[in-house]
């Protein structure tokens, strides 16, 4: 399935009088890898949570794949073809790796609980199909060796990959990656970049990427949106963003100048 | 071998995966064919029948608490609903077959379970547990104070009708035991099938991360109410069996908060989110005290102070539980799983 475009217009959100997002416009083209960057507290996670229906925007609207929505509903995301990974890994620790990945097909389940109990033809077909494609996607992400292990016994980096596998199994049209490289070693990052690239090329899925590692962002992204203090201060290609004076100001001029991002930006 | 252990851990925490039903079937065969050869009314009436009823109730609670993560302190209330509903259906619908009466008992408990499961849509953990206490107190109050439920019997203790299965009178301890065994075996099989499929995974997903489950399209609210209903059905049938086959009286007093806690302890000791854990835990909690008091009687000879034995037994059991939770927090089920791996490895 091809990727879908998503556009946010004038999205505003506040927490107890503090504006987290001030009339943010975001225009993401179908099939792009689109990064959202900005210093801590810029509103990146708020934006993702609005797209996921976890927060309800006070103003603004969302157009997803031609549908005009005043807000998203978390329970309908999977049906719309939107999947995500989480900044703090959200896996089901009571299940094996394969079972976690099979959960990514939940919204396609048609069999009833009773059908599953008595083993109806549909239930057995769905179960076999889910198992088979879960194994296939685990093989693609180089997780075959750990596919039957309890998911919480895996290394941090491997757990991040299981999350990615679970997000990819249903063939999403929009994939939200919330800091997919956080806490990874340099080697793991290189592999993760390759996996995301491969997934994108494989299905043409639109990717929204939130990431602090500017090297990763510049390498992966087709386009970048920069947020600062809840406002969009720039949008463009990586090469445009690198030389944008507002962006350099935001990174150099605020308290986060010492975290190394500026050096990478300038490079 | 280490990967086998890890695999087993994943399974013991939730899903039997693609495992066969051979082991459970062999156990069933022993209980259905071999054990009934023993001629001891005491064994069936005082040990095995209550063991089966409590196992079934624990299985129901484990579906709700172990798999789906919804803590309940109202199990005894659902047992009471099942017992009284079964009694009233059999009383008021002449000619209703026993098994239909049991099914109606379970369905009534399921409906009550959905009603009292509604707070779970908003509350979690301790808060939900406290709200389920309302079930416990309300049901006991209603059954005690609304005399219609006990057919206006003033004694407060009512007897179930004579039990028949087809034309077959269930009038001996062994026959009542076999009734329980049959019902428990069927419901256990269905539960094993339920937790090993997509629905079982959805239950665990709701337990481990509601947000993660919702994002993937799990209908969290519907899943919670569904498992409240299923769990209450199981516990309701268990209550009916407890009253009809074991106590042979029906009274609200036996279904108090102590009973709810007992069933909760059964699944904690036996192992959360484990089918066999319900049975192992029930054996530990129900059967061990009986064996201890028997042992006490034999050791001390006739004329022993039964109150003292009772006390010693409680201390012993309490110490065992603490020791056990300290050494094996994943329950008896995990212990058995490890022993089996060790045996296979050598």
From TrEMBL, chain A:
Domain (ABC transporter) ranges:
6-254
A molecular function GO annotation: ATP hydrolysis activity
**Pfam families on file:** ABC_tran, BCA_ABC_TP_C
The UniProt keyword set, sorted, is: ATP-binding, Nucleotide-binding, Transport
Q: Which domain of life is it from?
A: Bacteria
* Gene Ontology cellular component annotations, sorted alphabetically: plasma membrane
Question: Is Transmembrane set as a keyword in this record?
Answer: no
Instruction: Provide the protein name.
Output: ABC transporter ATP-binding protein
User: What phylogenetic lineage does the species belong to?
Assistant: Bacteria, Pseudomonadati, Pseudomonadota, Alphaproteobacteria, Acetobacterales
Automatic annotation (TrEMBL), chain B:
Please give the superkingdom of this protein's source.
Answer: Bacteria
**Gene Ontology MF terms in the entry:** branched-chain amino acid transmembrane transporter activity
Key words, A-Z: Cell membrane, Membrane, Transmembrane, Transmembrane helix
Q: Which residues cross the membrane?
A: 21-40, 46-64, 71-90, 96-118, 125-143, 176-195, 225-247, 259-275, 282-303, 315-336
One cellular component term (GO) for this entry is: plasma membrane
The lineage, from the top, is: Bacteria, Pseudomonadati, Pseudomonadota, Alphaproteobacteria, Acetobacterales
Question: What membrane topology is annotated for this entry?
Answer: Multi-pass membrane protein
Where it sits in the cell: the answer is:
Cell membrane
State whether keyword NADP applies: no
Source organism per entry reads: Acidisoma cellulosilyticum
Pfam families in UniProt: BPD_transp_2
Do you know which CDD domains this protein is assigned to? TM_PBP1_LivM_like
| Descriptive protein name | Branched-chain amino acid ABC transporter permease
């Amino acid at each position: 399935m091809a990727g879908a475009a998503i556009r946010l217009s004038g999205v505003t959100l506040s927490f107890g009088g503090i504006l987290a997002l001030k009339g943010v416009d975001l225009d993401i083209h179908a099939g792009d890898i689109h990064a959202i960057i900005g210093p801590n507290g810029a509103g990146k996670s708020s934006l993702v949570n609005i797209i996921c229906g976890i927060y309800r925007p006070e103003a603004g609207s969302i157009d997803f794949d031609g549908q005009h929505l005043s807000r998203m509903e978390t329970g309908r995301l999977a049906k719309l073809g939107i999947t995500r990974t989480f900044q703090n890994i959200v896996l089901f620790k009571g299940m094996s790796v394969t079972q976690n990945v099979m959960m990514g097909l939940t919204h396609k389940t048609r069999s009833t609980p009773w059908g599953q109990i008595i083993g109806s033809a549909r239930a057995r077909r769905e179960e076999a199909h889910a198992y088979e494609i879960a194994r296939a996607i685990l093989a693609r992400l180089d997780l075959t060796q750990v596919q039957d292990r309890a998911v919480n016994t895996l290394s941090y980096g491997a757990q991040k990959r299981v999350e990615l596998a679970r997000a990819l199994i249903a063939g999403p049209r929009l994939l939200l990656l919330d800091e997919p490289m956080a806490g990874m070693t340099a080697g793991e990052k290189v592999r993760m970049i390759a996996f995301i690239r491969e997934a994108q090329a494989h299905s043409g899925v639109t990717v929204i990427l939130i990431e602090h590692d500017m090297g990763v962002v510049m390498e992966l992204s087709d386009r970048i949106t920069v947020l600062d203090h809840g406002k969009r201060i720039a949008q463009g290609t990586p090469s445009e963003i690198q030389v944008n004076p507002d962006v350099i100001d935001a990174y150099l001029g605020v308290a986060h100048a010492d975290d190394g991002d500026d050096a990478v930006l300038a490079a | 071998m280490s990967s086998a252990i890890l695999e087993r851990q994943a399974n013991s925490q939730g899903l039997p995966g693609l495992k066969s039903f051979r082991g459970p079937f062999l156990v069933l065969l022993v209980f259905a064919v071999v054990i009934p050869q023993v001629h001891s009314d005491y064994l069936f009436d005082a040990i095995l029948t209550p063991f089966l009823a409590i196992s079934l109730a624990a299985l129901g609670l484990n579906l709700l608490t172990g798999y789906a993560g919804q803590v309940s302190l109202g199990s005894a209330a659902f047992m009471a609903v099942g017992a009284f509903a079964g009694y009233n259906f059999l009383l008021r619908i002449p000619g209703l077959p026993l098994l239909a009466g049991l099914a109606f008992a379970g369905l009534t408990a399921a409906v009550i379970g959905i009603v009292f499961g509604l707070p779970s849509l908003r509350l979690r953990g301790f808060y939900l547990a406290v709200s389920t206490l309302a079930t416990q107190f309300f049901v006991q109050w209603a059954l005690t104070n609304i005399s219609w439920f006990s057919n206006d019997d003033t004694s407060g203790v009512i007897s179930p009708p004579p039990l028949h299965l087809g034309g077959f009178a269930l009038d001996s301890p062994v026959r009542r035991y076999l009734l329980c065994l049959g019902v428990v075996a069927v419901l256990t099989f269905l539960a094993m099938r339920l937790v090993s499929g997509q629905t079982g995974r959805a239950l665990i997903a709701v337990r481990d991360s509601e947000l993660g489950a919702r994002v993937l399209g799990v209908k969290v609210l519907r899943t919670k109410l569904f498992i409240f209903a299923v769990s209450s059905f199981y516990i309701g049938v268990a209550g009916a069996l407890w009253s009809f086959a074991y106590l042979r009286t029906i009274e609200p007093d036996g279904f108090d908060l102590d009973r709810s806690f007992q069933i909760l302890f059964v699944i904690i000791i036996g192992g959360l989110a484990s089918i066999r854990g319900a049975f192992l835990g029930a054996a530990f909690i129900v059967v061990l005290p009986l064996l201890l008091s028997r042992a006490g009687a034999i050791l001390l000879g006739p004329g022993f102070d039964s109150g003292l034995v009772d006390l010693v037994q409680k201390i012993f059991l309490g110490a065992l539980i603490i020791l056990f939770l300290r050494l094996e927090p994943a329950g008896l089920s995990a212990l058995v799983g490890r022993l089996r791996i060790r045996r296979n490895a050598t």
